[in-house]
Specification:
alpha+beta, five-stranded antiparallel sheet
């Protein structure tokens, strides 16, 4: 198949969903690539909620939750829906609870990071909260 034939093949909705998921997983695995800025927003034990200034210019504001190097997932800021990846509920619930309480601040941080201006004013709650 030539490149022209590949480009002319229509994508089904399932194909598109699979491609988006694959690209998001690559994004999550390379989020600390050179040229990106990582912003740790919340941490409890080994569970981290982070946001990155990603050079790829993602349209949908999102954040990442990871547990060690075993699990990682991306979530939409506006709905808190999982966009891709997997995280067991025992790690996900606590981080999403914090995200729900801080959605407005996370939108501000996303806007700041996406314009190349790191936002460093959000204070993290103590681990005991």
């Amino acid at each position: 198949m030539t490149p022209q034939q590949v480009l002319s093949c229509p994508l089904t909705p399932d194909d598109l969903a699979e491609l988006q998921s694959a690209m998001a997983q690559v994004d999550a695995s390379q989020a600390s690539a050179p040229g990106s800025c990582s912003r740790l927003l919340w941490r409890r034990g080994h569970v981290k909620l982070q946001m990155y200034s990603e050079l790829a210019g993602h349209k949908r504001p999102h954040f990442h939750i990871a547990y060690k190097r075993q699990y990682a997932a991306s979530y939409a800021i506006d709905t808190l829906d999982r966009l891709c990846g997997y995280l067991p509920s025992r790690y996900e619930e606590c981080a999403l609870g914090w995200a729900r309480d801080h959605q407005a601040s996370m939108r501000d941080i996303w806007n700041s990071l996406s314009t190349g201006n790191p936002h460093w004013t959000l204070e993290l709650p103590d681990d005991d909260e």
